[in-house]
Amino acid sequence: ERMEKVVGRARAAFNSGRSRSLQFRIQQLKALERMVQEKEKEILAALHADLHKGGPNAYSHEILGVLGELALVMEKLPSWAAPQPVKKNLMTMRDEAYINFEPLGVVLIIGAWNYPFVLVMQPLIGAIAAGNAVVVKPSEVSENTAKLVADLLPQYLDPELYPVVTGGVPETTELLTQRFDHILYTGNTAVGKIVMAAAAKHLTPVTLELGGKSPCYIDKDCDLAVACRRITWGKYMNCGQTCIAPDYILCDPSIQSQVVENIKATLQEFYGEDVKSSPDYERIVNKRHFRRVMGLLEGQKIAHGGESDEASCFIAPTILTDVSPDSKVMEEEIFGPVLPIVTVKSVEEAIDFINSREKPLALYVFSNNKKLIKRVISETSSGGVTGNDVIMHFFLSTLPFGGVGHSGMGAYHGKHSFETFSHRRACLIKDLKMESTNKIRYPPVSQKKV
Amino acid sequence: NPYAGLVSHLRASWLSGKTRPMEYRMAQLEALGRFLDEKKQEILEATDLDMGKPSFEAYFTEVLLCKNELNVTLNNLSHWMKDEHVDKNLVTQLDSAFIRKDPYGVVLIIAPWNYPIHLFLVPLIGAIAAGNCVIVKPSEISKNTERLVAETLSCYLDDDCFAVVTGGVQETTWLLENKFDYIFFTGSPSVGRIVMTAAAKHLTPVTLELGGKNPCYVSDTCDVPNVARRVVWGRFFNAGQTCIAPDYLLCSLEMQEKLMPALREAITEFFGPNPKESPDFGRIVGDKQFQRVRKLLCSGRVAIGGQTDEAERYIAPTILADVQPSDPAMQEEIFGPILPIVVVANMDEAIDFINARPRPLAVYAFSCDSKVVNQVLERTSSGGFCGNDTLMHLTLSSLPFGGIGNSGLGKYHGKFTFDTFSHHRGCLHRNMGLEALNAPRYPPYTQQKLGLLTATFEVKRRGVCTLL
Asked: Where is the active site (chain B) (predicted)?
């Protein structure tokens, strides 16, 4: 009943029409920008409390991107929202034909706990920009950030149009019984199915940002030191809890030990001798996930790392070698600082390996051979790709960010967010005079008309 | 699961990569063109048997419009398939950044009976163009067309990659148990829910082209004869069995009075004094549907038409006047040759009436005053909108065709069909060199590094200057 009230109020607020003017939308976005700037300290503190994320790290991962998205959207919104004339045919030559971008109505955004601020803010920015009312449901697992978002948003934004709902599974389940005009969910595949099934009852379109095991193929012909540094950065950031982290490595057995040595050296460079005391290394979000990740190490050859401390949810950056494709660590998305290496004898084998599994959110391939990279891209499918680096396609907002198959459906970021949260309405405006041209389509029919 | 074998056969063909080269896709599309040319007569006959579809209409919607979509696709396919390069930011200036259009894999197209060729063929064109393997499930209700498609399509398309499945509710339910990589459904909202629920089990993305009651507002300032003709054409096309037909009229009492003789005139002009004898007026597709539509006649008062003939499934072009919102004709999508007129005081009341109801596939507004047309457009929400005419927005393939809310999700026609059946994959191909530029992002994190990162990643509002 509480959910019904909140959503009902948002819908009434949307129906009032006040979220539609560009002026209003930009004013709300400006308020969001002020919020991020004025409350930076509080946001960083919440992220630290939830994930042991250090200041500069949290800023660059969660605040920089949000400010960038806000600036981009505020600048481009007038051009994105303008009606788009379309090419006309002979019959419509004298008419007005265009696509009108319109809000969908009341949008639901369900955030995730791993990047708890940006994964709520970035969709919110797009949904506001498109003129919608938005119900925000941050993840209860990152409870400090959830509480902060619930406190801050009503201080800066129109509280009826953009309410924050907190809570866990029961609250989210109840929320999902309400009717929304679009749902954007970030999280895991299993819950993604539940969200889509709930949406189906109301014929609500969904954007599902899910996950999977993002493979990382390292070709023999590549600068291993550089490749391994980039991979180390992407794998161990946020303690491996990144939906587009390179989940596992595929490489030739002859370079496996070099890969391990390079990653070890990089880890030293990044976190020093004692990783546990580095301010730049995060923790696993809670005990449940800690135990889950530690369970994946069972029976594996640990080439590096493996140390842990349950009390602080610390798991050291870990590398596993000669991992069997059938082992537990190769079954589910790891979402932790454990990097399995599976050896393959050729790029063909790597491609077959990748294609025999569910389509991942991201795919990575390292090689000096441009042709090989192109081949891997062409012969596989994934949400997105970065060649010769990891993660980086996420930061280019002109690229649509989303999954395919089990890793999700739909996309957002930049203009893609605006389009995801808009209805593209086809408009054809004719003249009420000029009836003569219509006569050829009316009955009674003659051969001449045909 | 009787279709598991078929689906897995198509999946194997998909994995072989057969459907990916442009030449293959063009060849299959050209074969579809030959199907339309060579089987034109059979298509006209089958749709005539199924619902008395006038051959002019059948030629226009089932052949001509399909050939247009085919030609737009053949003319543009190589362009559509190309990687779409995107604007880069500072950090990615030296990289290659593009959107790759990947096929989904094995897709399912479920088509309805009212435009039985068009509504599977146009999605099929896009699905093939995008490089997928396809299962087509035509409607069992238009059974002559179903038989035609099942028997002849395989003579034109590669049956390793494209299959037709026939049957009713049970067969469709079995089919939906399989995993598809995309499902395209045209039909009713209630079945749309069932399809989306089945798709959710496999996380299959969907396009649902559904329906609703398309309102048609006629303002007091309008050219009455022209309005009458355009409305009559749109309403009685295919005996009213069109998802974007004007479902009901909203106008003032005075306009209802003015329109009546003009509507009568238009009906007579089009179908003669006895529409039952006109070769240009269709029939209801089946007995069940006939019964359903006939019941709706008990709404308001029959001002024009109202005659029925059960043996022929004929319902005369009918105008109902003074219809109340509570009348049967206003409770469901009519999908028949009946046009109820609901009297409203003014445009504002018409807009409120429209907005109090589920969002339709189309909204129509007629007025000589363009401000009125724009008001109705701005203050309502629908899949599409056509001012001063009916149906015509469908014929422009540069316009996206789809619904919103209960009338559907997703869109197609022209390039939109190709995009619907492609996964848009964001790709960044970076340089292995220039590693020094990456240094600011690596731990150990320092304020200095953060400053550098901010400088390279940040997007500044135009007009804001940063001092070094």
From this structure: 209, 243
